[in-house]
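Quick start: what a row looks like.
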Amino acid sequence: MATPTNTRFAVAVHVLTYLASCAAAGRTTPVSSEELAGSTAVNPVHVRKVLGPLRTASLVRSRPGAHGGWELAADPGVVNLAQVWRVLQGDDPVLGIHGPNPACAVGANIQGVLTDLDHRVARAVLAELEGITLDDILSSAGFDAEDYAALLP
């Protein structure tokens, strides 16, 4: 199986779940990019690049400074994964459509077919993600009180 080249959505869901877990645990201090990077096993800079658009969409908020960091800004029971997908994916192709040779009999006609297929796949992805909230992710992951307690500083 091919390795995905864009992991922003997966990192975003991971980080949002982490932040929702911290909130559920009663944590009152923000979570640093370094702590989030430790959980996601990606660079803190990448975490901040993923969180930036989520902050613009009011899904998270950040506090600057030495004791700053990130917090969930929305109700995890209301935030669905389609919102996250739209923020990060936008109108970018889902399937990684290439630029075929227009001089080729197949290449001249395949672009429209692939573009239509990409739009159908994108609609199907969004339809599936609409019904999944951050609370659903927390439940699916099987978090319990001990797990939440471990997230307190």
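That is the whole record. The chain has a mean pLDDT of 90. The beta strands are 60-63, 69-72.
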